[in-house]
Specification:
By secondary structure, the protein is of the alpha/beta class. The protein is about 30% helix and about 25% strand. Helix 2 packs across helix 3. The longest helix has 17 residues. The structure holds adenosine monophosphate (AMP). Adenosine monophosphate binds next to strand 14, strand 19 and strand 20.
Amino acid sequence: MHGLMMDTPLLIKNIAQHAERNHGFREIVSITSDHERHRYTVAESCARARRVSNLLNRLGCSPDARVATLAWNDFRHLELYYGVSCSGRVLHTINPRLFAEQLVYIINHAADEWVFFDPAFTSVLEEVAEKCPLVKGYIALTSAAHMPQTTLPNLHCYETLLESESDAYVWPDFDERTASSLCYTSGTTGNPKGVLYNHRSTVLHCYGLALPDAASLSAMDAILPVVPMFHVNAWGYPYAGMMVGAKLIFPGHKLADPETLVDLINEEGATLAGGVPTVWLPLLEYLRKSGRTIASLDRTVIGGSACPLAMIEEFRDQHQVTVLHGWGMTEMSPLGVVNRVNSKTSELSGAALQAHIVKQGRPLPGVDLKIVDENNAELPWDGVSFGALKVRGLWICSDYYGLDHPSDAHDADGWFDTGDVAMIDAQGYVKITDRTKDVIKSGGEWISSIDLENVAMSHPAVRECAVVGMHHPKWQERPLLVVVTDAPHDGLREQLLAFFDGQVAKWWIPDDVIYVEQLPHTATGKISKLELRGQLSAYQFPGT
Ligand code: AMP
């Protein structure tokens, strides 16, 4: 027997309509290349999003067109989030930091019809435009006075186009499984793979993100998404922030500039900010040097790679900011787990608390997890056993977009192999120990590079670091600590190695330390261990 409840589809337009009716006055603040600080309201944003939908019709976009963006976090990108998806089309957010060949591949693979771009990315597009024959034209996200000089074909100005469109547009109802946005994720091998979100998964993820034991979002929040809008829909904040009636603060092209971020936090009263650890390292350093504060900030959501203990403690102890350590991935919309206290962990202190807060956290309702051994047998949640982490749930991809064959990342029961190795404790807190490919195997035993990096990062001389497994003639692999430091190198190696004593098992301690000017990062700001291992290919442990 079916229940007698309305069969209302879960559509992104309902987020916008709810926001416009209930939070229409709420401010959206952006830095853009043509505005030092642009301000308008949610109501104005929604009206302009409808203009975008009208514009797409006038441009002759097909009903399920992929519409690409190469853009920073700002109000125009937000309008495209809603204007494109709510008209039934697919917003394809492209990471402008990708190599030209990857851009060509994904623009062609997605068959993007139009590309909306920030003028800052003009030369990036000029380099690839000739090789993207399916693109009908390029729309610069700026006003007429700031149009770039460019050879891009069929070029238009966003503001000029929107001027002649109407605010009136009734976003249609359609199947909630209709695709809404597309984000390509780069694996370590092969071409990037497209994760195709739908309206249903996006709305459900949005509810999940807002939950008290996730980001705990409310109408009193002012959210600063530092994570780019081209990376997994900026972790869902452009949707969830609008839904709850939070103020939205977009840093535009200044997202890697700590001083601007601190200005935005203080002047706009940000209560929550989200981003990868590489964004927070320079911000904390800037705060230390300048003596400035971030008093309004209540919490930061940090994920994308492991958040070091030292960072969690510095935010907590120096700035009274709670770090919400989270884990997820592009394939998971992205949020899987968040570390928030429960009635047991709230009692922890000292070393037990430290060991606990570096964990990535508990799964959101709607995300099911398990860890398995090499034979795909499930392992216990005892906080000790570790294995391949598999997931399934309401906002997790069922396959990649446009592959010739189903991907082998899903098993026969529909579980998705995340490529991460983890342990899970009895209360469901997940601890990621490594990417499967980054695990260090020494004499047949596993060593967690993340644990070692965590210890090293809490040494005051270490600005950034990575631990990689390097070939060892006796042990097969041994850990090598690669450090970025401003401190004199004299005697530092011995100090650093001694620093591990008592913090990890003796045989985990790295065999050597080397210094680099900087570490290679991926297009999404994570340390690229693949590239680092390439750079170190000639390395040999001393005496081997
Ligand atoms: P992406 O799809 O680019 O966001 O990358 C997802 C991957 O980032 C995950 O599979 C993990 O390997 C890594 N990752 C994300 N969050 C964390 C975290 N909090 N700790 C450790 N690794 C993380």
